[in-house]
Amino acid sequence: MQWQLLATMLPYNTFKIDEKAEALTEIHTLETFEECRQYARVHQQPIHIVGGGSNILLTTQVDGCVLINKIKGIQVVHENDTYVHVKFSGGEIWHDCVLWAVANQLGGIENLSLIPGTIGAAPIQNIGAYGVELKDVFVSLEAIHIQTGEKKIFDLDSCAFGYRDSVFKNTEKNKWFIYSVTLQLTKHPTLQLSYGNILAELKHLPHSTYSLQDVSQAIINIRQAKLPNPAIIGNAGSFFKNPIISKQHLATIQQSHATIPFFEQKDGIKIPAAWLIEKTGWKGYREGDFGVHTQQALVLVNYGHARGRDIVSLSENIITSVQQVFNIELEREVNIW
Ligand code: FAD
Ligand code: NAP
User: What's the pLDDT score for residue 1?
Assistant: First the structure.
């Protein structure tokens, strides 16, 4: 492997924060990962895994070894009349895998079109959008323990998936390198069209029986119209999770804010964080090169040369405002480095 020393992380994070990595290399094989692991062990350096860098916010130089995961491969490992199990290598680009599934008439992940990042990162926060989550199609993942080199297969239960959450954000945080994820994709999919404006988007088509391709393209259209493109404005998608509150808490808020939007979930009432941020006056806020997106209050943005710590401090101010007005504690979704 070839280390770049004091390398800029600029091409490796969608927030476009210009911090350095002490040592950085791209890994294309498991053997290279093992070499890097040994190197880091001997030099007593921490390892940091990066996929597409679309869910991290850099606040300082990254000390130790940064490994950019580029391990590629797509393999059908099991098939019957109704479904296919496909093993995707961790460095595959998530959206490319969605397009691969759609092109092969395999359903299950079309609603997750255009989510940035890699396959290996998808289980970390159980990526989700438009009513579908990774856990809905997840079979297992293969991982290597970064400290010990132990290989382990995690099944659905051992990942402990929750709303934008998994064991890899909790007890197993930063401990494992995920090098493959196996998904169950279906040959006779039931399209999930009830969420948001998917149907409204599909209605533009000249036909009324929709294909996987139609759904994927509809999601792509909606996302391109609504979300800031990180290639143009640095961002990491939703900065905060949507909070879950109790029915009683909702009733209290409704006394002063009758129109508060909410969604009943198994574990409580989900409130769109974007609404809370807008109501506390932060939508469109800008200070120098950082701010809150003008159309998407959930997305904090870097307009040019923002520093990660400025964005963190903006997020703290937002958390304080929402706490004061609604007595709700917003939780960050983005990983702060
Ligand atoms: P990175 O940012 O590189 O890493 C994220 C975390 O995972 C880090 O802690 C990293 O160390 C760890 N990690 C990465 N790869 C591995 C690996 N192989 N093994 C172990 N740990 C690893 N998310 C959603 O859930 N739904 C959305 O709809 C959505 N939309 C987005 C839209 C935009 C415009 C953007 C910028 C982001 C969006 N996100 C969304 C967030 C992001 O795309 C996901 O969290 C994605 O899974 C991150 O993948 P990544 O490869 O970029 O991860
Ligand atoms: P939206 O459709 O404007 O909806 C706003 C919020 O309300 C969403 O966050 C969503 O929660 C919730 N919601 C809407 N309809 C719902 C329903 N039928 N049932 C339950 N909850 C509902 O949201 P958006 O900002 O344009 O994003 C669309 C989808 O893409 C959402 O699923 C969102 O999570 C996802 N997305 C995620 C990121 C990220 O970085 N994590 C970035 C962009 C978009 P949920 O978020 O729980 O779905």
Answer: 82
Residue nearest ligand 1's atom 50 by CA: 117
User: What CA–CA distances, in Å, run from 129 to 109, 112, 193, 220?
Assistant: 10, 6, 12, 12
Residue 68 CA, chain-centre distance (Å), reads: 16
Of 46, 62, 47, nearest in space to 13 by CA: 62
Distance CA 71, CA 146 (A): 16
Find the 129 Cα to ligand 2 centroid distance in Å.
6
Cα(52) to ligand 1 centroid in Å equals 7
Write down the pLDDT at residue 196.
Answer: 86
Tokens 């129109």 belong to: 259
The closest-lying atom of ligand 1 relative to the alpha carbon of residue 129 is 28
pLDDT value, residue 247: 97
Minimum-distance ligand 1 atom for the alpha carbon of 112: 28
Ligand 1 contacts CB of residue 302 (under 6 A): no
Query: Is the C-beta atom of 117 inside 6 A of ligand 1?
Result: yes
For 167, half-sphere exposure in the C-beta direction (CA atoms, 13 angstrom radius) is 14
Q: How far apart are CA 218 and CA 215, in angstroms?
A: 5
Which residue, among 158, 68, 164, has the nearest Cα to 117 in the 3D structure?
68
To test the pocket of ligand 2, the residue of 198, 263, 334 to mutate (highest count of ligand atoms within 8 Å of its CB) is 263
pLDDT digits (tens, 9 = 90+) for 237-288: 999 999 999 999 999 999 999 999 999 998 899 999 999 999 999 999 999 9
